[in-house]
Design a protein that fits this description.
There is one protein chain. The chain has 119 residues and is α+β, with helices and mostly antiparallel strands. The protein has one domain: Sandwich (Immunoglobulin-like), CATH 2.60.40. Strand 6 and strand 7 form a beta hairpin. The radius of gyration is 22 Å and the shape is elongated.
Amino acid sequence: MKTMKRILSALLFVLILSLSYSCSDNCSNEAPRARILNNGTNKASVQIKTTGGNTININNIDPGTASSYQSYAAGQVTFTITVSDVDYVKVVAVSNCFEYDIAIDANNNITVLPIDRNE
């Protein structure tokens, strides 16, 4: 009987442990990151400038493609998006554990879409 209780206790412990790991967040205070989704008519580039003065560049993304993600510090950032030698500036407060899709549509309209990495 004692052996059966020990086995059941061990199984219960393993079950609780596995449930706690499966319920954890996908993101653990990771830096924000951004990419370009270029559905526009020309190549696009973005400069990401953080409040700390650091700059990240994502350059020459062809129409119909997406760039890889680039990480940077959380806080207020300035996205300077260049399409056909025209600059568009978006100032966005960004948070840890978020991805930002800088989406350019077929009319070269630009939106910045936040995506929570914990959802």
